[in-house]
Structure formats: C-alpha cells, structure tokens
Write a structure and sequence with these properties.
single chain; 311 residues; mainly alpha; Serine Threonine Protein Phosphatase 5, Tetratricopeptide repeat; TPR-like_helical_dom_sf; repeat; PPR_rpt; BnaC08g40920D protein; PPR/CCM1_RNA-binding
C-alpha cells in the first residue's frame, strides 16, 4: 500500500495489474477491511475494476461471514454492469451454506441457472454437503441427479458427502453402490496418472495427495500406502496434508500402529504435525477401543468427517 502511494507521489500511475496482486494478498491473508479500503481507493483513482477484482473481495467477505456486506458488494458490482461469474456465485453459495443458510445457497444456484451462468462441480458439492449435514438427503440426491443431467462429473468429494448421508439413514446398500462409483473414478484417475510420466509430465505433491485421498476414501488402503511409498521413494516431498490424508485412512481402517509409526517418522523429520494430525491419532485411539458395531458407525462418519481438501 505504501509503495503504491510512493509511486503516485513520484508521478507513476499504478493500474489494475499493479493493484491486483496486492488486493489478492490482502484477501488471502484475511485482511478484508484493508482489501475493501483498497478497492474504494481503486474506484476513487478511476482504476477499471472487473469481475475478478470484485470476486476476490466478495470471497473474503464470505469467509469473514460478512454475508450482507458480500451481497451488497455483489449488487453494487452488478449495478455497474459487471456480471458475476461462477467463481463469484461459488463464494456466495459457500458463505451462505457455511452459515447454515442452505436455502439461500440453493436460491443462488437457481439464480445462476436462470441467468445462464453454468454451475460447476464446486457449486454442487458445496450444496450437497450442506444438505447432507442438515439431514436433507433427498434434496442432496436431487442436486446429484441435476449434476448428472448437466454432464457435470461428480468427484470424490461429491460421493463422500452422499455416502455419509446414506450411512446416517442406514441405507448401506445404496452407500456401497456409491462407494463403487467413487472407486471407479479413482481408478480412472490412476490410469491417467500412469500416462503422465511417459509423456514427460512430472507428478507433484498435489497429484499424489489427491490420488492417495481417493484411494483412502474408496476403501483401497493398500493402494494408498503403495502410492505414498512411491511418492517418497522418487523424492516427492509429502506435506502435512498428505500425511493427514494417509493417517486418517489408516486410523479409519484400524491400522493404528502404522499410523503411530508414521507420526514418529514425522517427528524425526522435524515435521510439525499440528492439531489436525494429533486429532486424527486421538480419534483413532478412541475408535480402536470401541466394539466392532460402533467402529463401523465411526468409519462411516469418517468418510465425511476428517476432510482434507486438496487445493
């Protein structure tokens, strides 16, 4: 901010390209008030604003749970002739759903469709997850069917949410069918992954972590462990998120000793596990002491509960 002021003092007029990274950084670091202040300065200085600029601040407001302010800024943007896009709407839908206002989120989806703005998998996943948590599985399934109708491919997050909802209603046969669909999706991801290396493409931590998560969630723990070992052996460094995904899968499947061994290796490598990792281990210890029927119920919940998203 001070650098921009110095630029102007020296007769240099910053443009949208100059402001963009600063605004993005303020939003990502949670400095929403400063981001709003910068946005107003940009307007005052006649900097041309676009949907990307407004969407950054709207998303930050939603994460701060300032939903009325985010809607107000959205309406202001539209009044100026700048139309929201799928990213703008996803931020708003996510904000309302996180605040428990699922019906408002669903109304925003209807508004998108009426205005010919195509929703994506993130849009549907946010709403499906929210309706499942609210115990409104039938609405979640309607949204899933809408995804299929619109040729939007569900992903492991979609299936995990629906499996959780079906398990909570004791509809285990349907949950198993959904699990099979998720397993096929992960297998297809693995097939594409194996095509990367011959084409000169190098898999990174995010690629490996995503596949490990898919294998864990679809019940293929051995494949997840093998992929983790492959990742380490070729020098791709796992992150805390990668470790969390694997440890969650191990604890969920009763392999507590291996989970504890990996935790010890993290300490030896001076990797700070953080509260999420410790919570997984504690949960695994508690779950290990339960009778089999309660462990099955906890396993069903864990498909949905400890959700490490790869972004």
């Amino acid at each position: 901010m001070a650098l921009i002021d110095r630029m102007m003092d020296n007769g240099c007029q910053p443009d949208g390209v100059t402001y963009g990274p600063i605004l993005n950084r303020l939003c990502k670091s949670g400095n929403t008030a400063l981001a709003m202040d910068l946005l107003r300065k940009m307007e005052h200085r006649k900097i041309k604003l676009d949907v990307v600029t407004y969407s950054m601040v709207i998303d930050s407001l939603c994460k701060d749970e300032s939903l009325e302010d985010s809607l107000s800024l959205f309406n202001e943007m539209e009044t100026k002739g700048i139309k929201g896009n799928v990213i703008t709407y996803n931020s708003l839908i996510g904000g309302f759903c996180n605040a428990g206002r699922w019906d408002d989120g669903a109304q925003l989806l209807r508004d998108m469709i009426e205005r010919k703005i195509t929703p994506n998998v993130v849009t549907f996943n946010t709403l499906i997850d929210s309706f499942v948590k609210e115990g409104r599985l039938s609405e979640a399934q309607e949204l899933y069917n809408e995804m299929i109708t619109r040729d939007i491919e569900p992903n492991t997050i979609t299936y995990s949410s629906l499996i959780y909802g079906l398990c909570m209603e004791n509809r285990l046969d349907e949950a198993n069918q959904m699990l099979d669909l998720m397993a096929k999706l992960v297998d297809e991801g693995m097939r594409l992954f194996r095509k990367m290396s011959p084409r000169g493409l190098v898999a990174d931590t995010v690629t490996y972590s995503t596949l490990i998560q898919g294998f864990c969630q679809s019940g293929k723990l051995n494949e997840a462990k093998e992929l983790f070992q492959e990742m380490v052996s070729i020098g791709v460094q796992p992150t805390v998120v990668t470790y969390g995904i694997l440890l969650d899968g191990l604890c969920d499947n009763g392999e507590l000793e291996m989970a504890l061994d990996i935790l010890e290796k993290m300490h030896k490598c001076k990797i700070d596990p953080g509260i999420c990792i410790y919570s997984i281990i504690i949960h695994g210890m508690c779950n290990a002491s339960k009778p089999p029927s309660q462990r099955s119920e906890a396993r069903c919940q864990d498909v949905h509960g400890n959700d490490f998203r790869i972004v």
